[in-house]
Amino acid sequence: MGDLVYRCVIAASRAVFRGLGLRVELRGEEHPPTTGGAVIAPMTGKVMRVLVKRGQAVRSGEVEYGSFARGEEPHHVARITRNLANQFELPVVFYALVVLLVATNKVSTVDIVAAWVFVAGRVVHTLVQTLTDNVPLRGQVFLINFAGVAVLVGHVALLALDGLWR
Question: Domain residue spans in the chain?
Fold first, then answer.
């Protein structure tokens, strides 16, 4: 199943790139940057938070290290872990859409507003998910994130269709 999904995603991505008139060309991949801690540090912040919270739970005797491998962790740590996992879902789509719009130089004011709506929604979503057990509220806040991404998807889809019709 995963292989089929992967092939479909690749095919769809190629169609979008073709529709947008984009060509991917990699240069310098044999010389990766040797600096960039300022970019890496923010990415690791959430992971570090999970590690710190898990370490605190072990030191306090709430759980043993082996429990994490079995998916057993204190509720307050599990909320943070689940929030980290959520960052690899809708936000990844958001990042890809933003990169496409920037690469094609097609960013509009509506895209900028939608992006900020998404970011604001993610901040609120993170607070609700890591500080409360209010699932209905979390679902409502998710709709804010989804609306921001839906606007971006709509714009990229229109650009792709316009490119295919030419």
Answer: 35-80, 89-166
Q: Where are the beta strands (DSSP E) in the chain?
A: none
Could you write out the DSSP letters of every residue in 145-161? HHHHHHHHHHHHHHHHH
Q: How far apart (Å, rounded) are the C-alpha atoms in residues 117 and 138?
A: 16
Within 8 A by CB and 6+ apart from 63, the residues are 54, 57, 72, 73, 74, 77
Confidence of residue 1 (pLDDT cuts 50, 70, 90): very low
pLDDT value at residue 39 = 45
Q: Whole-angstrom Cα distance, residue 75 to residue 135?
A: 14
Spatial separation of the C-alpha atoms in residues 67 and 58, rounded to whole Å = 10
Distance of CA 63 to the CA centre of its chain: 29
Residue 153 has pLDDT above 90, yes or no: yes
pTM (predicted TM-score): 0.58
